[in-house]
Design brief:
The chain folds into four domains: about 40 residues; about 210 residues, Rossmann fold, CATH 3.40.50; about 170 residues, 3-Layer(aba) Sandwich (Rossmann fold), CATH 3.40.50; about 80 residues, no CATH class. It is about 40% helix and about 20% strand. It has 17 helices and 22 strands. Strands 7-6-8-9-10-17-18 form a seven-stranded mixed beta sheet, with helices on both faces. A hairpin with a 6-residue loop joins strand 20 and strand 21. The longest helix has 23 residues. The protein is elongated and about 105 Å long.
Length: about 575
């Protein structure tokens, strides 16, 4: 065909009589070249060049969950963007998506099907720790990478699963950022509220250790089953409301956590004196939550991974908004996008380094006695793909992409406050500059307003005063006497006329036995001490008299004896 085009070009060129003919011939030539180029560059399905080697990759998501829906869209956009940016690549990812339905058995079945029927060379997902544990073992058997961008539980350790890669942050990475908040406000007791799942239970030992390092005690662990009814959750919240501790750290998935906060507001626990902190599992997907949930979270403080601004991210967000009218991008979506880019780069490098084999070497089914799992083949190039993935580095939408110990490494966390249905960033935390505590103290000492900013010497960090539940800028004290209708009864000796009323004086209502007022040095010191206490202390002064006469004061020994007897 090339020879035919060449001869036609010279034939028409030799017979040209004017410039118009020349232009016509050039246009004809370009059209022929375009047709030839497209016919050789685009395959029959229009997905890429006919010379590209398709590499099968499985994707396991819970397609009914917010994270799954977002991830599926981000993965599709990542494939389109990557090969539009790299049209000359010799390989191309061929994705097959399976729905796990938030079920371990379904996820495992999907993985087996992908390995047996699709002969995938890698699997993206699954979403949860319970699902990932079994799928990771299948990856070990088939020697293909299992890459999860949403499994964050530290109980699933990549270093103990050779073919498991976590393109997300381990939940324990955020704990120093959280303890910096607790330490900044001098709270010494915290109640941890978490769901009774692998995700919830996996972080609790790390939370306790992290708080102990700053001399803060976990006064109570409230573990709630995801299958609990609203009535049962409300009963647990009322139990927490009757305790003294007023600082709550919530570690839950978005669906369960959103239900908790709606019920907490109904229980009157989103008011003054309460402090609520949420981990990044819930805070990373606040944007897509409905209005009722956000309204119930007014005053909540949370942490989440910091995503640096970039031109690529701005462009991605713009295209996302054009196609997604009701949801916003989350960090899990960005991690899913970057995971596809990392895998596509690694697949191409493996192809360039050696002849890539897309087939799995099958076991002898006829002689197998191990059931369906024995029918899973072993990848010839999986180990090489794994090592290439682990050494991949580039700037992604979520920031600098690099894997150490088979998982992403933390760069920085942003600390934010939910106020007026929006999230306002109030500070940052980094592993190298744990500055949040110092900046909070600075802002408190210099009496900054709630909208002011405190900068460090390099202008890299700032802190704003949060707005706490109850729409107050006054930090909660961290604990309070539960409202039970009872008051602390304080015995006061009724001083006689011959006593020193400069220390304690009781004035009475005429013709009654009811005290009218209290005064004196001892009274003033006691009241001042109460005001300095980090909690509200409802109390009542009760004069102690010896007999019916209000002038007949009893001795201190008599007063102490009555306290022992719990006298009224």
């Amino acid at each position: 065909m090339r020879s035919h085009i060449k001869h036609r070009f010279f034939f028409f060129g030799a017979s040209m009589a004017n410039n118009n003919q020349y232009v016509l011939v050039i246009m004809l030539f370009l059209d022929l070249c375009l047709i030839y180029g497209l016919s050789s560059a685009v395959g029959e399905d229009g997905t890429g060049t006919s010379s590209q080697k398709m590499v099968n990759v499985g994707v396991i998501l819970d397609l009914d969950s917010p994270v799954g829906k977002t991830a599926q869209r981000c993965i599709s956009m990542a494939v389109l963007d990557f090969y539009a940016r790299n049209p000359n690549y010799r390989t191309k990812l061929n994705l097959t998506v399976k729905d796990s339905r938030n079920d371990v058995v379904s996820a495992a079945s999907a993985a087996v099907e992908l390995l047996r029927n699709e002969e995938v060379q890698a699997i993206l997902g699954p979403q949860t720790s319970n699902e990932a544990k079994f799928v990771a073992s299948l990856g070990e058997k088939a020697q293909i990478p299992i890459i999860s961008f949403s499994v964050t539980s530290p109980s699933l350790t990549p270093t103990l699963n050779r073919f498991f890669i976590r393109t997300a942050l381990d939940d324990s990475c955020q704990l120093k950022a959280i303890t910096s908040i607790v330490q900044a406000y001098g709270w010494h007791e915290v109640v941890v509220i978490y769901e009774d799942t692998e995700y919830g239970n996996g972080l609790v030992p790390y939370i306790i250790d992290a708080l102990q390092q700053i001399d803060t005690r976990v006064s109570y662990r409230s573990v709630i089953s995801p299958s609990s009814s609203p009535l049962k959750i409300l009963k647990e919240l009322n139990k927490l409301r009757a305790m003294q501790t007023r600082v709550f750290l919530v570690h839950m998935t978005p669906s369960f956590g959103s239900q908790l906060f709606v019920l907490a507001k109904d229980a009157g626990m989103m008011s003054e004196e309460y402090a609520w902190i949420i981990t990044d599992g819930l805070s990373s997907v606040l944007d897509p939550m409905e209005g009722k949930v956000i309204d119930s979270m007014e005053g909540v403080v949370g942490v989440r991974p910091y995503v640096p601004m970039s031109t690529a991210l701005d462009d991605f967000k713009m295209r996302w908004k054009q196609k997604q009218t009701h949801s916003k991008i989350s960090i899990f979506g960005l991690w899913a996008y970057d995971t596809v880019w990392a895998l596509a780069k690694a697949v191409e490098l493996v192809e360039l380094q050696a002849n890539y084999s897309s087939a799995l070497k099958k076991n002898d089914i006829g002689k197998s006695t191990g059931g369906i799992l024995s029918q899973i083949g072993v990848s010839k190039t999986g180990p090489r793909l794994l090592q290439t993935l682990l050494s991949t580095k580039f700037e992604g939408l979520s920031g600098r992409i690099r894997l150490i110990d088979q998982q992403f490494q933390p760069a920085a966390f942003e600390i934010f406050n939910v106020i007026r249905r929006r999230e306002r960033v109030i500070g940052y935390w980094t592993p190298n500059k744990e500055s949040f505590h110092d900046l909070v103290q600075s802002s408190m000492l210099t009496n900054y307003s709630s909208n002011s900013i405190a900068m460090d010497d390099h202008g890299e960090f700032f802190v704003r005063k949060p707005v706490w539940p109850g729409n107050t800028s006054t930090p909660p004290k961290g604990w309070a006497i539960p409202i039970t209708g009872k008051k602390l009864r304080i015995g006061v000796p009724a001083i006689t006329a011959n006593s020193f009323d400069e220390f304690m004086k009781v004035e009475w209502f005429p013709n009654t036995n009811e005290p009218k007022s209290f005064s004196g040095f001892s009274y003033d010191v006691f009241v001042a001490a109460l005001e300095r206490m980090p909690l509200a202390l409802p109390h009542k002064f009760i004069p102690f008299t010896n007999g019916s006469s209000r002038e007949g004061a009893g001795t201190y020994d008599d007063l102490l004896h009555q306290i022992k007897l719990n006298a009224s």
